[in-house]
Amino acid sequence: MPNSLSGVIELLIAGLIAGILALGVSSKSKRKKIDLVEALVIGVVGAIVGGSIFSLIGLTTTNALGTMIVAFFGALLLLRVLTALRKK
User: Fold this and answer.
1) pLDDT in tens, 46-86
2) Sign, CA torsion 59/63/2/12
3) Burial class of residue 28, CB neighbours in 10 A (0-12, 13-18, 19+)
4) CA–CA separation, 63 and 21 (whole Å)
5) Quick one: CA dihedral 49, 1, 4, 58, positive or negative?
6) What torsion do the CA atoms of 12, 13, 18, 23 make, to the nearest 10 degrees?
7) Which residues lie closer than 8 Å to 69 by C-beta, 6 or more apart?
């Protein structure tokens, strides 16, 4: 978790970008419009999930690009789980 204002801002920006990318990659309907609030929530939660998983295996990020990559993979995982839960 970020411990400063700049860390929070970095998390929000990386989460938004990761959420937009994850929604764009995983969208089967190829929708043209992505809701920014949805993308932000998916990305930030994905960043937390991805960061937790990466830290469990001993990996850390050192810059904004690393944070964005971790957030992207976490957001993709989150979207997969949500899709699986919706099908049940």
Assistant:
1) 988 998 999 999 988 877 788 888 899 999 999 889 888 88
2) negative
3) exposed
4) 19
5) negative
6) 80
7) 61
- What are the tokens at 57? 């295996």
For residue 80, give both structure tokens: 């997969």
Q: How far apart are CA 14 and CA 29, in angstroms?
A: 24
Q: Domain residues of the chain, as ranges?
A: 5-24+32-87
4: tokens are 């400063």
d(CA 74, CA 71): 5
Backbone angles phi, psi at 35, to 5 degrees: -70, 120
The pTM of this model reads 0.82
